[in-house]
Amino acid sequence: MWARFRERVKRNIRTLAGCIKSVRWPVKCRERTATLLILALLIGGGLWVWLHGPTLAVLKSDNPAQAVPKSACTVHTTSVHPVKVGDASGANAALNIFVGRGGGRVQRQSSPLTVQNATLPPGITLCATSSDLVSSNGQTLPAYQVATWARVDNDGTHITVFMTVAPRFGSVSGFGGYSGVVSLDDPRALGANVPVDVHVEYYDISDPAAWALLAAFGGFVWAWFIYRHVANPPVPQPFWTSLVLGLAVLLVAAIPVVNAQVLTNPDWAGSLGQYITLATLAGAAAIAATPTLRVITALPPRSAPAQTAGQAS
Questions:
Q1: What is the pTM of this model?
Q2: 64-200: in CATH 3.60.9.10
Q3: For 95-104, how does the pLDDT look when each residue is reduced to its tens digit (9 = 90+)?
């Protein structure tokens, strides 16, 4: 099996060398040249992305503790009967925090939570704490990248929980989704448990996009290989037709996959498993799209049937 594969590779190399030396440039040489040009564009684009893409940097000025009011966690006399505050409930109970690709500090607040059977002094700030914010793979956001507190409204009957997240302060934390719970940690009030979901977007979409295009090219080459061995005889395409076919397959296969897996998924973390899934989907999409697009690009012009009828008459 491997001997036959090596023989085919050598035969293709000899054919390509013959194409380069040929003055008349046969049609089969034009098809292979278009494929090699697409591969060269992918390699060049990947190198450009690697050299000129955004870099990860620690943001020293995004200390989340600076956003906490100074009066939030000052020492107070313990109340004999601390006020109970209701927990967040309902479909919108979770506090969703979306951190953009730049990784800058983001602050969000919960919906008002009811103070039960009592009131609090209007306008005061309360101390709050957060549990560990843990991702699905076990990573946690460091405590110095998270800050939280609460504020009583003007009537003293509701409080609002605030949370600030800075995943690049002090160090660069991993990307993806983190979950935890925020609650009051104040001697004057208890409760106010709010589930929190932090979504740290992947810093550079060009990496998965380049990977998906490369995987789609692999699927296109595999579909072309199957066509060459199934069609009897295989019909080579001109240079521009082959170039348009290859680019169309790459775009049709890669763009929807990147959109579904990366752009619309704020929890994309860039893990090995996610890249394997991305390559599998893009390659399979390219294999499925190549036969249809090949037929479309091989269709004759609309005037061809009329010309044929005129010649027959």
A1: 0.74
A2: no
A3: 999 999 888 8
